[in-house]
Amino acid sequence: MKRRGLYTACAGTVLFGVSLLAANSVAESNFMGPAGFDVSSIFDGMFDMVTDEITIIPGATERVSFAVESDGVPVIWAVHMTDYEPGDSLSIAAYGPSGNAYGRSTQVDEVTFEAVEQAREGPVDIEITNTGPEPVTITVMFSEDPENSEMFMDPDSPLNKLIFPLVIAGAALIAGLVVVIAGIVIFLMDMRRQQRVNRFDDWSSGR
Predict the structure, then answer these.
(1) Which residues does residue 136 pair with via DSSP β-bridges, in sequence order?
(2) Is 70 exceeded by the pLDDT of residue 82?
(3) pTM of the model
(4) Residues 6+ away with beta carbon under 8 Å from 162
């Protein structure tokens, strides 16, 4: 029986395994801390401003400002709960220079990202209220006009050191999985074809 299906499946398995090891190696070499995967290190260099850690007790509100230097540019902001536990929640409101509301959101995950598409020159204020039952510690991050940000230009930025390699590794993982499935299908087709040939030989020999 032909073994092309087995060979194809083995090649896909090798590609899948190598891609998985490569993705793990990229993460470990750049972003693994003593306590495991260090989320905060990914943000280092990706934003124009990263605040120090801020602790907010239940029911309290903290306000953080970021100065936008151009008019009509996109601004991305993010809130990272550095000591996140299930059940933590934040209510977040963003305001423009004249106090106009850009929007309000609820955060129940470790990190949330939001964007202001056409921010005006002047301060963008983020109000964060702890709506959970326990104190939380956060950092707030801002990036003005991220498409022209240094994170895209700098080869040593977290984006280029982690995100792009992981995208490539992820594509290779998917390709490896597809090849494995194709190999299994080919193997089953060859096996079925061989069974038909064997039955025909048995019939033609009068068995």
Answers:
(1) 56
(2) yes
(3) 0.57
(4) 26, 27, 30, 31, 42
